[in-house]
Design brief:
The chain contains six helices and nine strands; from the N terminus they run E-H-E-H-E-E-E-H-E-H-E-H-E-H-E. By secondary structure, it is α/β, with parallel strands linked by helices. The chain folds into two domains: 3-70, Translation Initiation Factor IF3 (2-Layer Sandwich); 92-200, Hypothetical Protein Ychn, Chain: A. A five-stranded parallel sheet has the order 8-7-6-5-9. A four-stranded mixed sheet has the order 1-2-4-3, with helices on one face. Strand 6, helix 4 (147-155) and strand 7 (159-163) form a beta-alpha-beta unit. Residues 74-81 have low confidence and may be disordered.
Length: 201
Amino acid sequence: MLQERLDCRGLACPNPVLKTKEIIDRGGVQRLLVVVDNPAAAENVSRFLGRFGYDTTVDSHDGIFDVTGTREESTECGIFVEEARQASEHRILIMVATDRMGRGDDELGRRLIVNFISTIHEMGQELWRLVLVNAGVKLAVEGSEVLDALKKLEESGVQLLVCGTCLNHFGLLEKKRVGETTNMLDIVTAMQLADKIINIT
């Protein structure tokens, strides 16, 4: 069995995922151990390995996370392909980088972002992904006024991506209650695939 070990301690997002991708792209690796030093990186690497057919386990000790991916020798290494879509489909990605909308009055800005998140379902099927970065990740955590609205969006098929580095920065990783913890590689790929990007700052 061909095995590889990758030490990604101290590397900022999305480097652990990018380095994992480099190993996978070489092909032939049946067992890959990736060592990281934060839970967001562990989650991102584990999910990334799963996309390529690896069964993953995560062991933690003293703030270090060992992410192990294993797959059968017969499994071919394939590139993760975005789901197929109809030619008529239009994909809108909304990037929210704040927990308040606009500048001038913070309380007004908070009410506006609540109204915005509660209303975007009106976009219908064109609303494809909602990406939360920077202070926007605060909308997806315990106690958020828009938590129920975000859960309904996710249940309706909108993919909700929540920046893991941002959650770590604010100390909110354990308080996330909706969405998929993600990394900058996933966010950049989503932006590339979107037909239209709306930025809320």
